[in-house]
Every structure is written in C-alpha cells, then in structure tokens.
Inverse folding.
C-alpha cells in the first residue's frame, strides 16, 4: 500500500484529522479532500452512539452527491476481539473504493496520535495493497484546549509529555511523571480522573491543572478548578493538562 502526505484528489483513501470538534478547525487541505470525496467513511461505536466525526464534518458534506458509510467499531483493548472488527471495516472500505472512487476516512484530532487509523491501515495493507492511502494531519485536542485556556504548553527548554491516561494504572509512576516534566498532557482522562486528581493532590499540583472536554463543541467545558467536577461522570475523551512552568 502506497502512503503519502500529498494532495487528496486522486482515487484511494485519504485519512483526515478533523481536529478536536470545531468544524472550522479542519485544515484547508482536509476540507478540500472531504469535498472531493465520493465516499465518506466515519467510525461509530457499536453501542449505537452518534458518530462524532460525522457530526463535526456535517457542515461540509453534500448528501446529494456523497455517500456516508459508518464503520461500526469495537472500543476495547482485547486484540482478539478487535482484529476481526477492523478486518471487516477494511473489507467494507475496499469494497466501496475498488471502482476507483475517492474516499475519506474521518477521525477526531490527529490520525497518528493514538488514532484508530493504524488498525485500519494494517488490515487494508493486507487486504487491498493496491489501494493508495494518504494522511492529512489535524489539530490535536490538547493544542485546542491549551488555546482555549490560554495556557502555554512549553517554553524555552521545558519538556512536555503526552500520556493516555486511561492506561496509566500505576499511581506512583504518574506522580513521578508529574514532577519530572514541566507539562504533562493526559488524554482519554475520563475513566482515570479520580486517579489523576489523587496524584495531583499528592504532588501539590491540583491548582496547576486545566481540565477540558468537548473542546470546540457546543458542550465545551474548560475548567481551571478540578475540585468542583463530578469525577465519576466525565467523557472518555476528556483531557487534563498539568503545567509546572510559569503561567501567563
């Protein structure tokens, strides 16, 4: 499978990072690719929830000309369960694009930062090696959250680390990272929020944290005070930025 970062008008599949949620944060290159596509693929969880990617891209789609195909995916860690689901999704994509059509696969944020596209990419490479794949990056959720909260991510020689919070089960390791880096970005923070707040309290950094959910959407919440949050009912894709450096 050929992979490039070039234009997005030839037949094949273009993976597009939509950014965090604001339709106006889609790049111009991504927008041109969306508008040039005949088939639009969007991920949707199998629990029946609305596709967030479809919701973000909706203002730029033309239902009269474009076909939207939702790929029902399984959001679990077990590879034995996930692999057949992605193989099925790849077969669906290949079937729609075998006639030389232009397709786009839409994802939140940036495709190559904890993006599910890597699973689809692997299966397509095996199933349809002739299919050309292109990738268009997107604005990350933490970049948008930092902008919304007027919070510098890093200055001069400061170091920044990005972690998938839902996988950080070791509280001691989390405390260590919070004290070793000037800025710590904790993505997918929803289920780990009680653990994150505990680590922040133990390291004296609770007042140095910014919480964000649904960045760029009507439901957006940016909070500087985590004490007032319901820690047990937050979205999975929420995030926390902890900054020990100087703040504006």
């Amino acid at each position: 499978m050929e992979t490039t970062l070039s234009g997005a008008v030839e037949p094949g599949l273009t993976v597009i990072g939509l950014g965090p949620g604001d339709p106006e944060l889609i790049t111009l290159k991504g927008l041109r690719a969306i508008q040039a596509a005949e088939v639009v693929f969007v991920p949707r969880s199998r629990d029946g929830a609305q596709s967030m990617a479809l919701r973000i891209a909706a203002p730029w789609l033309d239902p009269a000309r474009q076909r939207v195909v939702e790929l029902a995916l399984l959001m679990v860690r077990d590879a034995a369960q996930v692999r057949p689901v992605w193989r099925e999704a790849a077969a669906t994509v290949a079937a729609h694009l075998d006639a030389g059509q232009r397709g786009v696969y839409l994802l939140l944020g940036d495709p190559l930062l904890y993006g599910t596209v890597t699973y689809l990419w692997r299966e397509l490479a095996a199933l349809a090696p002739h299919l050309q794949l292109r990738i268009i990056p997107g604005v990350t959720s933490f970049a948008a959250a930092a902008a919304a909260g007027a919070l510098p991510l890093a200055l001069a020689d400061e170091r920044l680390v990005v972690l998938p919070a839902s996988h950080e089960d070791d509280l001691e390791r989390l405390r260590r990272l919070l004290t070793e880096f000037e800025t710590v970005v904790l993505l997918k923070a929803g289920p780990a929020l009680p653990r994150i707040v505990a680590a922040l309290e133990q390291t004296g950094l609770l007042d140095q944290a910014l919480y964000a959910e649904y960045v760029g959407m009507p439901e957006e919440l940016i909070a500087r005070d985590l004490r007032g949050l319901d820690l047990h009912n937050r979205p999975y894709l929420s995030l926390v930025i902890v900054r020990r450096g100087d703040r504006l």
In short: Residues 10 and 102 are 6 Å apart (CA to CA). The chain has two domains: 3-136, 141-243. The radius of gyration is 19 Å.
